[in-house]
Amino acid sequence: MKASQFFISTYKEAPADAEVVSHKLMMRAGLIRRVSAGIYTYMPMGLRVLHKVEAIIREEMNRAGAIELTMPMIQPAEFWQETGRFAGMGPELLRLQDRHGRDFVVQPTSEEVVTDIARSELRSYKQLPVNFYQIQTKFRDERRPRFGLMRGREFIMKDAYSFDKDVAGAQASYQTMRQAYRAIFDRFGLRYRAVAADSGAIGGDLSEEFQVIAATGEDAIIYCPDSDYAANIEKAEALAPRAPRPAPTQPLVKTPTPGKSTCEDVAQLLQVPLTSTVKSIVLATEELDAQGVVVATQLWLLLLRGDHAMNEVKVGKLPGMENGFRFASEGEIVAAFGSKPGYLGPIGVRADVKVVADREVAVMADFICGANAEDFHYTGVNWGRDLPEPALVADIRNVVAGDLSPDGKGVLAIERGIELGHVFYLGTKYSKAMNATFLDENGKPTWFEMGCYGIGVTRLPAAAIEQNHDERGIIWPDAIAPFTLVICPIGLDRSDAVRAKAMQLHDELAAKGVDVILDDRGERPGAMFADWELIGVPHRVVISERGLKEGQVEYQHRRQTEPTKVAVDQLVSYLAEQNVYGLVP
Amino acid sequence: MKASQFFISTYKEAPADAEVVSHKLMMRAGLIRRVSAGIYTYMPMGLRVLHKVEAIIREEMNRAGAIELTMPMIQPAEFWQETGRFAGMGPELLRLQDRHGRDFVVQPTSEEVVTDIARSELRSYKQLPVNFYQIQTKFRDERRPRFGLMRGREFIMKDAYSFDKDVAGAQASYQTMRQAYRAIFDRFGLRYRAVAADSGAIGGDLSEEFQVIAATGEDAIIYCPDSDYAANIEKAEALAPRAPRPAPTQPLVKTPTPGKSTCEDVAQLLQVPLTSTVKSIVLATEELDAQGVVVATQLWLLLLRGDHAMNEVKVGKLPGMENGFRFASEGEIVAAFGSKPGYLGPIGVRADVKVVADREVAVMADFICGANAEDFHYTGVNWGRDLPEPALVADIRNVVAGDLSPDGKGVLAIERGIELGHVFYLGTKYSKAMNATFLDENGKPTWFEMGCYGIGVTRLPAAAIEQNHDERGIIWPDAIAPFTLVICPIGLDRSDAVRAKAMQLHDELAAKGVDVILDDRGERPGAMFADWELIGVPHRVVISERGLKEGQVEYQHRRQTEPTKVAVDQLVSYLAEQNVYGLVP
């Protein structure tokens, strides 16, 4: 490719609405152009990246036996009504009507349409397993689209859906996809972790996220440096402490803590570590009658160590929480506890309030908690002595760095990640809702066991940039760079030797399989180098008249700060040593 | 590819709503699946065809210097309001609102967004010419979607947009695209014609349609078998007759024609050829004031030979018709002509009615027309003698087979076609509307000269099938077949020799570049052959135990009715002689 025949558009400044580095650099390097909030044109330079990402995904999905199809962008509401998602999904689902007033949605995913295909096309167990995938434009009407392609509204996703005859088959399909995802992410050339994720109401451990490591990532990734344990924050289990509960050493004292309603304030006032305090969180669950009217409300008191955070996913799995929970109102709290929030605690709690202690809290002694009286806390609180043992002890908190690893092989560390992929066992959720069955070995109609598997195609370049950039711009991994190597000739217009060598090297490297671009725009060296460093092409070869007189060109990797002189007739073998992507010497 | 690892779904019957053969065969062969009216899933077998079509288009567009990008499906109304198309485009434009109540459209094409890109990214004449293209999902909310992919609502289109600094540049860009389209359509392997089309108000001859020839096509293609003249029916010019007007031989007679209000009826009644009659069509144009209120109505009397049809595009170009016309109401006609329609004619017409005679009518003598009196026609009518020469003589009719070719090289013939591509010079229509300018050589802001170029990607397989099918199913051209060659083993499960040879040939042909599928499903020969004949794979190799004992396999092209025995060790060279696509022996 010659730069003069391509479209290159770089900017010194990023637009004001670009908050994160990937958004800024994608705009400055001309990879994308904003059309509306969260809606972008993929410009020629950016589309090359997407095409490479798509090609890798397609190859590995095909290799794993998945079969590509393309489902429509605009889907009729009927299917979405069958699963309840048309009404249930909220404003993220973009709804519209056609000229006849019929309801449609713009697909955010395609479970409904693919399940409809299965129920009419997959009639016998003999046709199973099948895994259909598509690489297709999706839309989610985010309330606050931001960060460029990181949280856009229109985006491209690879979504795959497996259909199996039984749970064992679905597990095998899941494992096949998991391996394919590892192959895909390995090929992208990004640092990533496959982390266990919550699998929702279905249970089991068949849910993993593929997180690209980046300091700016939205997600906390929990991992054990001494083993291969990795999970997201919702999923990572906080083990029960190994040490038993110490014996009480302090008396129970009702202590004035005027105006100190947080654990931090109380710990500071009393000059104790935050880990000596216990926080109280009051939740409510409701029983509804057939008309959806609340007929009973149950209050819950959750106890967490002062420095710990509640994990809503774990709480949502407690017995009695299956249908969801909410935070209790101040009125409900005052009525039940006789105190406003900030001074609550488990001593003297009304018998109809369910008390749940986090595992960590259950082994604390001499702790501090609210006294259910404004401006007072208890110190020296001890289970069994000052209050009954907790009715329920459970893991209801987020893990923190230093916690024991659930696999018993060390302690946990935390890093930040960007979710790029998700493999998920769906079970019969959609096949039941849409009554999608096949005939099993005995001729009996049986619901499909399903899995779904997504990769955020347009989000991937953003994550790659968050992970790989410096003050000069993007640093692409070879496999997904818009171009693998750029030839920068100095004085193209003045020197026939430079022009001839540049053209010859371009043609030679292209013939040898390198995705090469020759910058024949006639820019000055400074501007030319700055462009390609901003765009982030990983390999650069500079040709100058002076160099050629010495039989040399200069090579520099985007991560290097200085060029290396290379004999021009050794260049190809030198590039092969640098593992230039695609090069077949 | 092994059939057992792919998804094959064929049907004996087409659904009841499939009216045309391509729709029936695409459904029966499992290429597409209906999701809603005019909205389809491209099933794995169909998607392979689309991917091949897209690859050919992409290669040739890139070769022609066009640059690929991807514009969004969901586009903000603001751009469409700038060009007036948001309000003006009618219900085919699918409109929707996001969660904040902002207006959007689903793109039917992308002139607005690409022009917005140009006005901010293309700042100088030095950046021109540029041609941006995309291969992207589109939506047109057709009132009556039908014929499967032939007139769908959601479809894939390749749309390209060129930007030039002046008309000469735009003409050059147009010619480049025209050549690229010829290369693309040549590679598809379909019989097609590039036909001149009407270029609307812009004038000039820079509009051509690429029509795939098919007896079932919606469009009439006019061509000259003795030259390369080809045009669509709107465009094809009807030359003035060479022979001069004959001298009058009959007297003018007012003849009773009770109840005979059509030329056909009058000709039959009077026992004269239809070509002796003249039909009268009354049109109206309106003058509006600034508030859009009609302040004046002009009536027009158009005269056509009885066997000819009015061409609305040609009529719309008459001086005075620039702002559109409508058919006059019966009330207007009676008031102006003193007779109801069916008995109108040019004799004694009120002076304020503009009379336009078709070129053919202008040289008629002794003709028959209405007498402006119910149940009466004139016979023996002659220009100059019985009525004044027509105020305006123009080409206002559709050509018919046998008309003189406009290039003077023979007579015209007509065949049917399906429009698959269109190249079109846009001029400054969109750049003016959106004030999209660049700085010219003198630093002066100048509107871009634009062109647009479309190919209906998803419509193409339907057109290919309309052109290439028989009673057994589809017959794909090699380049866009879902698979190029199928290996059908007989008794795969019974014979190790058959299995081994089938596998070996599959691997060998795949390695030599053939897109081959091995049918290892274990179907009986009849069902297996019927499937592949329905699907339309062009080349078939049958391997049987008996054949192998004689060292032979059977080859049959989809168009052949009998197989040919080929020595198994000569197969590759034999296939090379059959020009099997992709084969590098």
Present the secondary structure layout.
Two copies of one chain form a homodimer.
Chain A: H1 21-28, E1 32-36, E2 39-42, H2 44-63, E3 67-68, E4 74-76, H3 77-82, H4 85-88, E5 95-97, E6 103-106, H5 111-121, E7 130-139, E8 154-164, H6 167-188, E9 192-196, E10 207-213, E11 219-223, E12 230-232, E13 253-256, H7 263-270, E14 278-288, E15 294-305, H8 312-315, E16 326-327, H9 330-337, E17 354-358, H10 359-362, E18 367-373, E19 376-381, E20 392-394, E21 413-427, H11 429-433, E22 437-439, E23 445-447, E24 449-456, H12 459-467, E25 469-470, E26 473-474, E27 485-489, H13 496-511, E28 516-518, H14 525-535, E29 539-543, H15 545-549, E30 552-557, E31 564-567, H16 571-577
Parallel strand pairs in A: 3-7, 15-17, 17-20, 27-28, 27-29
Antiparallel strand pairs in A: 1-2, 4-6, 5-6, 7-8, 8-24, 9-10, 10-21, 11-12, 11-21, 13-19, 14-15, 14-16, 18-19, 21-24, 22-23, 25-26, 29-30, 30-31
Helix pairs in contact in A: 1-12, 2-6
Catalytic activity (chains A, B): tRNA(Pro) + L-proline + ATP = L-prolyl-tRNA(Pro) + AMP + diphosphate
Subunit structure (chains A, B): Homodimer.
Family (chains A, B): Belongs to the class-II aminoacyl-tRNA synthetase family. ProS type 1 subfamily.
How many E-type strands of chain A? Answer: 31
Shape of chain A: globular
Q: Can you tell me the CATH architecture of the largest domain in chain A? A: 2-Layer Sandwich
State the name of the first-level CATH class of the largest domain in chain A: Alpha Beta
Family (chains A, B): Belongs to the class-II aminoacyl-tRNA synthetase family. ProS type 1 subfamily.
GO cellular component, one term (chains A, B): cytosol
Subunit structure (chains A, B): Homodimer.
GO biological process, one term (chains A, B): prolyl-tRNA aminoacylation
